[in-house]
From TrEMBL:
Family that this chain belongs to: Belongs to the adenylosuccinate synthetase family.
PROSITE patterns assigned to the protein according to its UniProt record, in alphabetical order: ADENYLOSUCCIN_SYN_1, ADENYLOSUCCIN_SYN_2
GO molecular function ontology, one term from the record: GTP binding
Originating species: Sphaeramia orbicularis
GO cellular component: cytoplasm
Protein's recorded name: Adenylosuccinate synthetase
Organism superkingdom: Eukaryota
UniProt key word 4Fe-4S: no
Length: 450
């Protein structure tokens, strides 16, 4: 997939992270630009972030863990990122893992070392980790697997998690028994006691769970020393970044709106807030310091794992999107489910996030289709419903109303500007803009990734 964006539109839209612009700061401080997934993940957020990251001073992750995943190709080398902010690739920027992220330390160092071997040198010096971030332990990952087995046995279906321990780690956080980076770096005796208590708590819930506590503690002690130089008070660091000299701050969302623990298709969601509020709570950024919020949406829809998917195409169209779009999960290697673009969900994501721009990705995957459909409304018992249903049983039952467009049947993979696109493709994009509730391109500052 090739990519570009309309630099003109983008510059106008984004004073804090625009290209080649004079850096400006208002009295409230610098503003962070936030990039968020507008569907069920894998929209190509990484591509957008990578573009912006080349200019950014600080690139931050605010939520999730190593359940996220994207590949970046630089100078013919492929790097895989799951937990590290992709700004780590830019030797001039600092990457920050915020308090809202859950960190699996073996995973973090494995990812760094693997990419180091490919040429990502000095990453440890460019990474800052919040002392308030919670730790994902190996047993959290085992428990993730046990919970999936239990769900399958009890309900005949699981969530299809990434088994990275995300749910159990956020559960520990919410139940106030979790352990944070500051605990690991504090008194190790105290940390060990709390670690053992946490293990016991899980073992009482899952008697089959075996944990070699001493071995785990030994490893954690080693990780602590490797991590120590990177750890800072994340709140203070962010405050300084926002109120010091002008800086371009970029927040890289992981997962996506429909996987959000509050707004997503619960219970088939992840365990963090992947919508805009997560940028505030996961980094200590006041709402006033949020600048542009870029929503990333694929020109069709994909979903990994279980859960309702109203525009899913279990037919030749779905297969074509899957193969042409290489829709295979970076984290789990699973084939992604595919379907038509669903504007009900993108609009819903916009209601929550207040996107200032939408980046539309992988439009060229649609190049060969004779006709292209877009879901525009949901009907229940023959009647349109104005909202996105909270209840999954209801969502399973909705009937999707489609708008059908003639395919442009032209290779758009080399298109770099709006004018490079065939009229039918422009038409498709215009329709999307209008439907999401955007009066005009310039006002909404729409930009595209082809
Ligand atoms: P990126 O950042 C796609 C999905 C999982 C599963 C559910 C819960 O690459 O877009 P979890 O392991 O988080 O408890 O799994 O959420 N999921 C994602 N799907 N892309 C992601 O991230 C995802 N992160 C979580 O497949 O259905
Ligand atoms: Mg992914």
């Amino acid at each position: 997939m090739s990519l570009t964006w309309s630099a003109k539109d983008h510059k106008n839209s984004n004073p804090s992270a625009g290209t080649g612009q004079k850096r400006q700061r208002n009295d409230a401080g610098n503003k962070a630009t936030v990039v968020l997934g507008a569907q069920w993940g894998d929209e190509g957020k990484g591509k957008v972030v990578d573009l912006l990251a080349t200019e950014a001073d600080v690139v931050c992750r605010c939520q999730g863990g190593n359940n996220a995943g994207h590949t970046v190709v630089v100078d013919g080398k492929e790097y895989d990122f799951h937990l590290l902010p992709s700004g780590i690739i830019n030797p001039k920027s600092i990457s920050l893992i915020g308090n809202g992220v859950v960190i699996h330390l073996p995973g973090l160092f494995e990812e760094g070392d693997k990419n180091d071997k490919k040429g990502l040198k000095g990453w440890e010096k460019r990474l800052i980790v919040s002392d308030r971030a919670h730790i994902v332990f190996d047993f959290h990952q085992v428990v993730d697997g046990l919970q999936e087995t239990e769900r399958q046995a009890q309900e005949g279906k699981n969530i299809g998690t990434t088994k990275k321990g995300i749910g159990p780690a956020y559960s520990s956080k919410a139940s106030r028994t979790g352990l944070r980076v500051c605990d690991l770096l504090g008194d190790f005796k105290d940390f060990s006691t709390r670690f053992k208590n946490l293990v016991h708590q899980y073992q009482s819930m899952y008697p089959s769970l075996t944990v070699d506590v001493e071995d785990q503690l030994k490893k954690l002690k080693d990780y602590a020393e490797r991590l120590r130089p990177m750890v800072r008070d994340g709140v203070y660091y962010m405050y300084e970044a926002l109120h010091g000299p002008p800086k371009k701050i970029l927040v890289e969302g992981a997962n996506a709106a429909l996987l959000d623990i509050d707004f997503g298709t619960y219970p088939f969601v992840t365990s963090s807030n992947c919508t805009v509020g997560g940028a505030c709570t996961g980094l200590g950024i006041p709402p006033l310091n949020i600048g542009d919020v870029f929503g990333v949406a694929k020109a069709y829809t994909t979903r990994v794992g279980i859960g309702a998917f109203p525009t899913e195409q279990l037919n030749a169209v779905g297969e074509l999107l899957q193969t042409r779009g290489h829709e295979v999960g970076v984290t789990t290697g699973r084939k992604r489910r595919c379907g038509w673009l669903d504007l009900v969900i993108v609009r819903y994501a916009h209601m929550i996030n207040g996107f200032t721009a939408i980046a539309l990705t992988k439009l060229d995957i649609l190049d060969v289709l004779d006709e292209i459909k877009v879901g525009v409304a949901y009907k229940l018992n023959g009647k349109r419903i104005p909202h996105f249903p909270a209840n999954m049983d209801v969502l399973q039952k909705v009937e999707v109303e489609y708008e059908t467009f003639p395919g442009w049947k032209t290779d758009t993979s080399a298109a770099r500007k709006w004018n490079d696109l065939p009229a039918k493709a422009q038409n498709y994009i215009r329709f999307i803009e209008n439907h999401i509730g955007v009066p005009s391109r310039s006002k909404f500052k729409f930009f595209m990734i082809f």
